[in-house]
């Protein structure tokens, strides 16, 4: 699992420190190339839309939610269900 944000790596360090430890790396998409490639770049705000993508071992997107809400339990449950289908233990 990877987390990718258009925030600078320094912001990631502060965020990670505030969370204690994270079980996954935080990657910086400072040049916004990944957000643009996945079509989740918001030109107006120069930010990325909070999204979740699951990419299988073959590089195929098997799940996508481009309106993921961090406070919505059902959004997490949908991700976990997809991971189970792929044989991944969330």
From TrEMBL:
Q: Which UniProt keywords apply?
A: Disulfide bond
State the InterPro entries in the record. AhpC/TSA (IPR000866), Thioredoxin-like_sf (IPR036249)
Source superkingdom? Bacteria
Alkyl hydroperoxide reductase subunit C/ Thiol specific antioxidant domain: from which residue to which, for each copy?
2-64
Q: Name one GO molecular function term.
A: antioxidant activity
Extract the Gene3D superfamilies matched here: Glutaredoxin
State one Pfam family annotation.
AhpC-TSA
The protein in question is named: AhpC/TSA family protein
Query: Which organism does this record belong to?
Result: Mesobacillus foraminis
* Top-level taxonomy: Bacteria, Bacillati, Bacillota, Bacilli, Bacillales
